[in-house]
Amino acid sequence: MTPESPAAAPSSSVAVDASAAAGVVLPEHDAGTAAFAQVGMPLPLVLLCGGLPRLLAQPQVALPLLQLATAQGTTGADATLGRLVLELLELCFLGLAPGEPSPEGDSLATQAQKHAGEVRAAWEAHAALGPLPSDTPTRLLLSLVPCLRQDLLRLLWPISLAQSEAIYQRFGLLARLLGVTLPATFAEAEAAAASQVTEASAQAPDPAATAATTVLQQSLERQLAYLLPGTALDDLPKTLCPYLLQPGHPVDALLTVLKQAARTVHVSIEGLDAPAVLRRMTRLLSWSLLLGLRGYRPIKGRPGLVLPKSLASWEAA
Length: 317
Description:
mainly alpha
């Protein structure tokens, strides 16, 4: 069922500015790629369990996004979320990782620039199809900003402010390739992301938008359940997402799920305190997700994601 609301009729032009990409060149290696290689292993996990849910929780985005998705058929929500997940993770690996040339001879940075142009064109095509707000691309990218520090710290993952800033600066170059200009510094971007969350929470409740968020979030949880191995971790998104989205959300429910998963997959957590359990299981979940991504093909005819060789050290981390 597609929720409908007479109030949900934002601008139909998804604003991306191709001129923002003019002159942007991604270096093969910089402080951002170095920081990502050092501390970025959980970033795909928090992008999917923190960043995307932040976007889907915004009523001005959730309802038109679901309307656009369901116009494509009964599996439209899964297809739309699958495409969004794939595009985000491809940009993550291509744009943030230090890269070697592909079999075709292109470096990861060159591939990222090509891919960003394709994504930007897809966003422009979406503008002609449905009622997405004009600032949806900016809202999406700002929703990901807390993933670069806040979410990682919530999982007790070690990352310095300098590393967050370095990754963000690289992220800002990717945003410009996508036609979006983000704030100049990480601190300014954090403030803008926080304002976006405050704005969404201050709006009067809209049952149709709330229902749309629920449908899209459930679709995202199905994507994650597919990516994570077996069934022991199927409940993880339902507990990890609210834990990351709500700063005051207690860790108890998440620890319960993680301990159950540890027993199921025979990971020893005996004698570990709660922070140590959280760190160990975050490492396991992140690596399991990365392995699952190798066969992730939500778009027919598109190959699965490939973990760059430069990140091989994550396996032994």
